[in-house]
Design goal:
By secondary structure, the protein is of the alpha+beta class. The chain is 15% helix and 30% strand. Helix 3 runs parallel beside helix 5 and helix 7 crosses helix 8.
């Protein structure tokens, strides 16, 4: 190909695609005239490699990826047999995430033989840099790990709505509230298409019950039991807003959701085979049940009608019923994988949620107790799965005990292995260097200093973080200058560090942990302000007294569960495409996110015509769902796009769009193990201003994968 490039030096990135549609790593070439620029930054070697979901047919391989410039990083994996020979024909998709995150890939089912030992390796690849090669057979053990494949046991999910019951599921019959059938018809070419309205009375289902199955039981009025009655697949739609029989059939059609309810496989099924359990669970969770719209065919294609007995039937046995199977609520199971990490005068406690939450809620509270010997020395009650303790005696063994509590009871306790807080020389100096590092970054964004060297020189600890700051400076300066061209500037950039712990790390490093709360205020030329806040458990690693790495401490310290819940502890790569047919051509992609030369969003043009129904979610439902789930840290640990999209969908009834995985205009429904995972969020669209304001991760770059949604 021919390139028409401007003067100066340029970087060309190239990738190959094979016949299976799999992309290779990126090769980087530099060309130009004049002095050659500094070498491109490459990602750090992955750290804290762990296996997860090893009790399932598809184990996860994971590691934490970081880069000095804090850019997005991909993880590449390789699988070997016990002798070090790479397994042929095994495709391990590459996950991608922001620097400091844990990424994972799933080993395809059927690849591993139970009882056999394997090895695996991992490398980190920058999206704009040359990737580092995979470790050779002689590489250090920290980057090449053995894994022993276990015989998969019963599949269980840590946060599944239908975990293995402690007792047999129970069945309740939910009555339909009369009247259940409308007397209005809606329009159809060449005739009329009738809709029936059914609203279920769910009072018989106890609070916190986990729905396993729900079936509508209707009885034909135009066909006796002795006849061979044909039951076609119906069109069933959940109502997104309230409707009453006094309203018209057109109003019923307008109140119904845009898309018909279907199975996970998308197959039409006869009414008696249609499991509406997910709808019932959603009604119970949101507290909004407006009923169902049921019809044969649709408004475009009229179909022969059928008659069912309504709730007015003289024979009670023939009235509509909704038969619901559920697992009664109970106290949660015990927390898993409790761990105590020592630090100077304190410790970090981490754990995983119970395999059985005991009810349909994930909003558990945890009581964390620290004991020195038999004496309790500290106690906290938290919503997250980690807690920080300070003021402990160095050199003394401390054990952590954790229990989980919901409105339905308290679990048994789980203990950690004792840990001894340890003294770290000059620990205050390390903590202050991290604070000064954030001050220097803020100075570059605000324009207080124009270069990384000047920003670092303002601190007496400049030598401890100068190199890491220099790697991030180009992007920080580019952001400041791009905003300036649009008449905006950062009037406030602040970072506070709380719950600081300084302790020993691997390979003689020093680790500073702390809850980092950042706040920025972007002010335009008219004085309008756009504040933004964020919080993350930060991890700052010093080697030989120099800050070398910044990461999410929760991603590093997590213990990967052995069941399907491991998929929630990392960013898991989507499955590889089976063929080139699954790769969407550019012309079939979603509407591009238009950016200017500085990577800033171009103002959206006015939408042509009325907005789509799925672009107008129920506002109160969205807010209500978000309020109930905002305390669940794992639900939005990778950014706001996750919980916002779930709130829009589950609470606001915003619909999922159909489309292939690579189509950015779609919200992709996929599976990890046996559990369905709604993984991609919606990018900004001209028809949905509220979405473009909240899914910022999708708005930053046209190459950015929308946030991960579980």
């Amino acid at each position: 190909m021919t390139l028409k490039a401007a003067k100066g030096w340029h970087t060309l990135h190239a990738r190959t695609v094979d016949s299976a549609g799999l992309l290779s790593g990126t090769s980087t070439f530099q060309f130009g005239v004049g002095p050659k620029p500094a070498a491109l930054l490459v990602p750090d070697r992955p750290t804290t490699l762990q296996e997860g979901a090893i009790d399932t047919p598809a184990p996860l391989l994971s590691g934490v990826v970081t880069s000095p410039d804090q850019a997005r990083v991909s993880g590449a994996f390789a699988l070997y047999d016990a002798s070090g020979e790479e397994l042929p024909g095994v495709v391990l998709p590459q996950p991608s995430e922001e620097s400091g995150s844990r990424v994972a890939t799933a080993v395809p089912e059927g690849t591993l033989v139970p009882g056999t030992t394997y090895q695996w390796a991992m490398r980190a690849c920058g999206e704009a840099r040359a990737p580092r090669g995979l470790p050779s057979a002689r590489s250090p053990r920290r980057t090449r790990r053995p894994i022993r494949c276990r015989t998969p046991g019963p599949s269980r999910s840590r946060r599944s709505r239908t975990p293995p019951p402690r007792s047999a599921p129970r069945t309740a019959r939910a009555r339909t509230a009369p009247p259940s059938v409308t007397r209005r018809c809606t329009w159809a070419p060449g005739g009329a298409s009738w809709r029936s309205w059914l609203k279920e009375n769910l009072a018989a289902i106890p609070a916190g019950a986990r729905i396993t199955d729900a079936r509508l039981k209707l009885h034909r009025a135009d066909c006796s039991a002795d006849d061979d009655c044909v039951e076609p697949a119906p069109t069933l739609k959940d109502l997104a807003e309230a409707w009453s029989p006094e309203q018209s059939g057109q109003a019923l059609a307008a109140a119904a959701s845009d898309e018909a309810f279907d199975t996970e496989e998308g197959l039409p099924l006869p009414l008696q085979d249609l499991n509406v359990g997910p709808l019932v669970a959603n009604w119970l969770e949101t507290g909004e049940n407006h009923g169902l719209s049921l019809q044969v065919g649709d408004e475009k294609d009229a179909a022969p009608g059928m008659a069912y007995h309504s709730s007015r039937a003289a024979d009670p046995a023939k009235r509509p019923r909704l038969v619901v199977s559920y697992i009664p609520s109970a106290a949660p199971g015990a927390p898993q994988d409790v761990k105590a990490v020592p630090a100077y005068g304190g410790l970090l406690a981490t754990w995983n949620a119970p395999q059985d939450p005991g009810s349909a809620t994930d909003a558990l509270k945890y009581t964390v107790v620290v004991r020195k010997g038999a004496t309790e020395v500290a106690r906290q009650t938290v919503d997250d799965t980690r807690a920080v303790f300070s003021g402990l005696a160095n050199g003394a063994a401390h054990a952590v005990t954790v229990s989980a509590t919901s409105e339905f009871g308290t679990s048994k306790t789980t203990d950690s292995v004792p840990a001894k807080p340890v003294k770290v020389a000059s620990q205050d100096r390390y903590a202050q260097a991290v604070r000064d590092y954030f001050e220097a970054r803020a100075a570059l964004l605000k324009g207080t200093h124009t270069t990384a060297e000047k920003a670092a020189a303002a601190s007496p600890h400049a030598a401890m973080f100068r190199d890491l700051l220099a790697g991030q400076a180009p992007d920080l300066i580019l952001t400041r200058e791009a905003n300036a061209r649009h008449g905006r500037h950062f009037s406030q950039v602040e970072a506070t560090l709380d719950e600081l712990l300084t302790g020993p790390g691997p390979d003689d490093t020093v680790v500073v942990r702390g809850r980092v709360a950042e706040r920025t205020v972007l002010t335009d030329k008219d004085g309008d302000q756009e504040p933004e806040e964020g919080e993350v458990p930060g991890r700052f690693v010093f080697a030989d007294g120099v800050l070398r790495m910044e990461a999410d401490d929760a991603a590093v310290e997590v213990t990967m569960p052995t069941d399907e819940a491991a998929a929630q502890a990392a960013t898991v790569a989507p499955p590889a495409e089976d063929s080139l047919a699954d790769i969407v051509s550019p012309e079939d992609e979603g509407l591009p996110i238009e950016l200017d030369a500085g990577g800033m969003l171009v103002d959206d043009p006015a939408a042509a015509g009325p907005p789509l129904a799925y672009a107008a979610p129920n506002h109160s439902g969205t807010a209500s769902w978000a309020k109930r789930h905002v305390s669940i840290g794992w639900d939005h640990s990778n950014g706001c796009a996750n919980i916002v999209s779930k709130a829009l969908h589950h609470g606001g009834r915003m619909k999922i769009r159909k489309g292939p995985r690579r189509n950015l205009k779609s919200w992709y429904r996929g599976k990890i193990f046996s559990k369905r995972v709604d993984s991609f969020t919606w990018p900004p669209r001209p028809t949905s201003a509220s979405t473009s304001r909240t899914t910022g991760a999708a708005a930053r770059s046209p190459a950015t994968t929308p946030g991960r949604v579980t």
